[in-house]
Automatic annotation (TrEMBL):
One of its GO terms (biological process) is cell adhesion involved in single-species biofilm formation. Signal peptide: none annotated. PROSITE patterns: GGDEF. This is GGDEF domain-containing protein. One of its GO terms (cellular component) is plasma membrane. PANTHER family: DIGUANYLATE CYCLASE DGCM-RELATED, REGULATORY COMPONENTS OF SENSORY TRANSDUCTION SYSTEM. Its EC number is 2.7.7.65. It is an enzyme of class 2 (transferase). Residues 9-141 form the GGDEF domain. GO terms for molecular function: diguanylate cyclase activity. Keywords: Nucleotidyltransferase, Transferase.
């Protein structure tokens, strides 16, 4: 990865980990846990053209040379969905599906060196895990600014109910509404 950075070429890094791996290991045994790790590793190698590595425990990394952030995100979302669809390869009970959570960062957008890129991908992974797992998250950058404001409790309850009904996160609905609002006024 450092080679691409030294050449000042774009490179994306994804950190991913197996959701609820400790529970799988504890409830189904080390043999089942080992099988999950081996299967995830095999799927990563099949999919990533030898650019996937086991970092530690149930955490893996995928290097995506010359990838834009959007390309890396879409590739990782495809990988996440493929692992979710490959349940028969894990040989686990149906009530123990294997899913992965992924954090993506890209040089030069998110970091200036290899260590910074790894930290940014790890931070994105933590964000993805904290907001629900089985998803892909991007490293936050300077252009993404946290804004907070207060809403009437009735509006918050309605937003929560709508999010549950649509099976979406509240933040996704708020971003959709903001984008619609901006499009409306851009057309005037």
């Amino acid at each position: 990865m450092d080679g691409w950075i030294k050449k000042d070429e774009p490179v994306a890094l994804a950190h991913l980990d197996v959701d609820y791996f400790m529970e799988i290991n504890q409830q189904l045994g080390n043999e089942a846990g080992d099988r999950v790790l081996q299967t995830v590793a095999a799927l990563l190698q099949e999919w990533s053209d030898k650019q996937a590595y086991r970092v530690s425990g149930d955490e893996f990394a995928v290097v995506l040379p010359k990838a834009t952030l959007e390309q890396a995100f879409l590739k990782m979302e495809t990988l996440r969905a493929q692992i979710e669809q490959a349940q028969d390869r894990f040989e686990l009970p149906e009530d123990k599906p294997v899913t992965i959570t992924i954090g993506v960062a890209q040089y030069p957008r998110d970091a200036k060196n290899e260590q910074g890129l790894s930290r940014a991908a790890s931070a994105a992974l933590v964000t993805a895990k904290e907001t629900g797992r089985n998803q892909v998250a991007l490293a936050p950058n300077e252009e993404m600014v946290m804004k907070s404001c207060y809403y009437p409790s009735t509006a918050v309850r309605r937003l929560k109910a709508l999010a549950e009904q649509l099976n979406k996160k509240e933040s996704v609905l708020l971003r959709e509404a903001l984008n619609d609002l901006l499009r409306k006024y851009d057309q005037q």
